[in-house]
Amino acid sequence: MRKSKFTADDHLYLQVADGIEKMIADEILKIGDKLPSVRVLSEEYGISMGTAFQAYYHLEGKGLVESRPKSGYYVRFNHKRYPDLPKMRIPEQITTEVSVKEMIATVYRDMTSKLLMNFAVAVPDFSLLPAAKLNKSVVYALRNAKHHGISYEHTQGNEELRKQIAKLCFNWGGKVTADDVVITAGCMEALILALRTVTKHGDTVAVESPAYFGIYQAMESLGLKVVEVSSDPVTGPDLDCLEKVIDKFTISACLFIPNFNNPLGSCMPDEKKKQLVELINRHNIPLIEDDIYGEMYFGKHRPRTCKSFDTKGLVIHCSSVSKSLAPGYRVGWVIPGKFADKVKQLKMMYTVSSPTLTQAAMAHFLSIGRYEYHLKNLRKALHTQCLRYIQAIMEYFPEDTKVSRPQGGFVLWVELNKKVNAYKVSIDALKHGISVAPGQIFSANCNYSNCLRISYGKPWDEDVEYAMMMLGKVISKML
């Protein structure tokens, strides 16, 4: 038997598929070109016929190749055909009282309806989550938790869970112990605790623009003002703009999503994260880092965090498993740095402790080593879905549509013709059973009125394709 030229470090079919994908990207193989037959591919790479089929199935799932009956496989799509990126916008440098709640309430009032094709919620589809394995961990927790999980957990959180989270931090270069971690009810509680810790009513916080609407809701509830910092769709917040904002206003904190920002999808290069930390250190401004999407990367390596460059304890790192594993378990955490005592005090004041049973179940799940295995499958699925949704936008939306190119996360940022009102699109789309998030809710000033956020958390199928086609028709009618 001929020995394969590939190593056993990864699945053979993925290595073959990656090689073909690179040839398509480099235009060695052009759209319409016929690919080698399964038999030829098997002989060329020294792999089995089954492995060759898997490689083509994988590329077909990404929409890069197509099978033609009795003819073989052909190149269908090239990444270089991507539409233009959304333009970086320069927001007005003004402090703003926040209020977008009415529009958000309208968009999300039917969030859990099973009748909707929901592109508005940035969560993984249930089919992508390891429900059976999580159930086993819940049963284990019920049988082994002290007092059957009925009693209060420690305010700082389940000790074993904090140990497991400290281990996860090694993936992004963190040197964290269990004592550095405070468990929260999801990432949003972590962010609110961080904001309460470093700000007071009336203070101003710098956020990137566009920014996740939940951040604006949190700001509004705390009586805070925001000033928006322009953000590049690929590399994230503009540090020159941030420096100007700091010079112009009294900034009490910065709140950014450096890895796979929601909604823009940008990822700050590691060197730029280091520069950001150096900037906030010079001005002694706390940085609240929302890293909830950090594990959902499409490349070979997890991007680092701002926290990994923190030497003064000014970076407050917030995250959770809500986007990667179990949204309903509401297990998140904050690594507060020099603000640990204040965060723990606030945690005790407002919630006493997080739910005992879900913490114990999550600690068990993380301890048995299934999380990384699950993440590998989730990343592959999301990358495939991302490509499929972009291709659908190119096919069904107007020609002048611009779309982001995220390298991780769940969402696409779509810029439409200036004649299009995204909020009206969202209302009209609901009539067809389709939910999308209009751009206006991602800015305190209701900017981005011709932009949409579309989640690709749902696996591609005929229903998704039909919904994307109908959404394209709704948009086209406004031109």
Q: Topology, pairings included?
A:
Elements: H1 12-25, H2 38-45, H3 49-61, E1 65-68, E2 72-75, E3 96-97, H4 101-108, E4 117-118, H5 131-144, H6 159-168, E5 182-184, H7 186-198, E6 204-209, H8 213-221, E7 225-232, E8 236-237, H9 239-248, E9 251-256, H10 270-283, E10 287-290, E11 315-320, E12 332-335, H11 340-350, H12 356-367, H13 370-396, E13 402-403, E14 411-415, H14 422-430, E15 434-435, E16 437-438, E17 451-455, H15 462-476
Parallel strand pairs: 4-15, 6-7, 6-9, 9-10, 10-11
Antiparallel strand pairs: 1-2, 3-7, 5-12, 7-8, 11-12, 13-14, 14-17, 16-17
Helix pairs in contact: 1-3, 2-3, 5-12, 6-12, 7-8, 7-11, 13-15
What coarse outline follows from CA principal-axis ratios?
A: globular
> Radius of gyration from the CA trace?
23 Å
Largest pleated sheet = 9 strands, mixed
Number of E-type strands: 17
Count, helices: 15
Mean pLDDT: 90
* Beta fraction: 5-15%
Report the structural category.
alpha/beta
Helix content: 25-40%
Q: Distance between the terminal alpha carbons, to the nearest Å?
A: 61 Å
Summary, kept brief:
The chain is of the alpha/beta class.
What does this 3D model show about the protein?
The protein is α/β, with parallel strands linked by helices. It contains 15 helices and 17 strands. Strands 3, 5, 6, 7, 8, 9, 10, 11 and 12 form a nine-stranded mixed sheet that branches. A hairpin with a 3-residue loop joins strand 7 and strand 8. Helix 1 packs across helix 3, helix 6 crosses helix 12 and helix 7 (about 185-200) packs across helix 8. The longest helix has 27 residues, at about 370-395. It is globular. Mean pLDDT is about 90; it is low at about 1-10.
